[in-house]
Amino acid sequence: MVVKDPDLLGELGVPEPLVRALPVRGVAPGVTEDGPVPELPEAVRELHVRFHHGRG
To answer: How far apart are alpha carbons 44 and 56 in whole angstroms?
Structure first.
C-alpha cells in the first residue's frame, strides 16, 4: 500500500507498514509516471478510511 499522505495512516491508528514503499523510478526507471491527479486524493483517503475501519 502506498500512501502519499504520511499522516493519514497515523490519523487512522494504523501501524507503519513492515515493507518500505519504493518509488516508481526505483523499480521501473524507464516508465513515465503521470500525476498527481487532483481529483483522486479525497477518494483514496475515503478508501483507506473504509478499509481500515471496516466500512467497505
So the answer is: 13
